[in-house]
């Protein structure tokens, strides 16, 4: 049986790193928890710059267009993450590989705000530690 590849917006790697159980709605927050649980199994992911498995339950997703209502901003974040990580759009790798690169190239050198400093959640991420269980 082939393992399903999870399509993940590149900048969501950072959202996951600092997730503290808060989000756009209760449904979204519960969904986020279930995705993080899934990622703990270290699945194969594909880095994308459009709506993904996390966006599916977000109230900011415009369903008819399957597009975020801040599409330009979040897509820019996705592209910056991919560039900072030295990866490519649509690249396939494991979640653990991706998260290690994000940590080494963005989070540990404190470059996160260069990418998503304008996000509404910036202050929360700035004051939070990386979820320890993600750091293996
Ligand atoms: S729809 Fe937009 S705000 Fe919601 S999770 Fe996706 S990228 Fe983030």
UniProtKB/TrEMBL annotation:
Domain of life the protein comes from: Bacteria
InterPro entries with a match to the protein in the record: DUF1284
Protein name: DUF1284 domain-containing protein
Organism expressing this protein natively: Gallibacter intestinalis
């Amino acid at each position: 049986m082939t393992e399903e590849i999870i399509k993940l917006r590149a900048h969501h790697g950072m959202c996951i790193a600092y997730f503290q159980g808060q989000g756009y709605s209760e449904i979204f927050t519960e969904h986020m928890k279930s995705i993080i649980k899934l990622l703990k199994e270290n699945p194969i992911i594909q880095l994308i710059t459009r709506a993904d498995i996390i966006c599916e339950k977000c109230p900011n997703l415009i369903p008819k267009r399957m597009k975020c209502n801040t599409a330009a901003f979040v897509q820019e974040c996705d592209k910056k993450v991919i560039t900072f990580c030295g990866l490519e759009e649509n690249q396939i790798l494991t979640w653990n590989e991706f998260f290690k690169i994000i940590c080494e190239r963005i989070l540990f050198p404190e470059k996160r705000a260069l990418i998503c400093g304008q996000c509404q959640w910036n202050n929360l991420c700035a004051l939070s530690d990386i979820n320890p269980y993600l750091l293996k």
